[in-house]
């Protein structure tokens, strides 16, 4: 059975294409520098050009996954936030 993804435009900016590619690649790369876990909701970000801006559409389940993981790791390790600020 195919899973449906719900994407929502979280923001739009006037970025050049190389900047967008670097942003999306860094944001959606697995694994992150702060965890070995992999984002299960891929594609996590879909971009589209519209009226001279780029729309950033995120999988809402993927956003929740990242938020929940960061919260969990920060609660388990009180020095976690300091560690990831160095990554």
Task: Explain the overall architecture.
The structure is a single chain. The protein has 87 residues and is α+β, with helices and mostly antiparallel strands. The chain has one domain. Helices cover 39% and strands 23% of the residues. The protein contains 3 helices and 3 strands, in the order βαββαα. The chain has helices at 17-28, 60-76, 80-84; strands spanning 7-13, 45-50, 53-59. Strands 1-3-2 form a 3-stranded antiparallel β-sheet. The relative contact order is 0.20. The mean pLDDT is 88.
Supply the number of structural domains: 1
Strand content: 15-25%
Q: What is the number of beta strands? A: 3
Mean pLDDT rating: 88
Helix content: 25-40%
Rg is 15 Å
SSE pattern, N- to C-terminal: EHEEHH
Number of helices: 3
* Spatial strand order of the main sheet: 1-3-2
Shape: globular
Report low-confidence residues grouped into runs of 5 or more: none
Distance between the ends: 38 Å
Major sheet details: 3 strands, antiparallel
Helix vs. strand class: alpha+beta
């Amino acid at each position: 059975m195919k899973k449906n993804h719900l994407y929502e435009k979280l923001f739009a900016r006037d970025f050049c294409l190389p900047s967008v590619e670097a942003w999306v690649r860094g944001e959606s790369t697995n694994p992150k520098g702060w965890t070995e876990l992999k984002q299960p909701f891929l594609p996590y970000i879909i971009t589209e050009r519209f009226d001279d801006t780029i729309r950033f559409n995120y999988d809402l389940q993927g956003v929740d996954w990242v938020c929940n993981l960061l919260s969990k790791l920060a609660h388990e390790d009180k020095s976690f936030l300091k560690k990831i600020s160095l990554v």
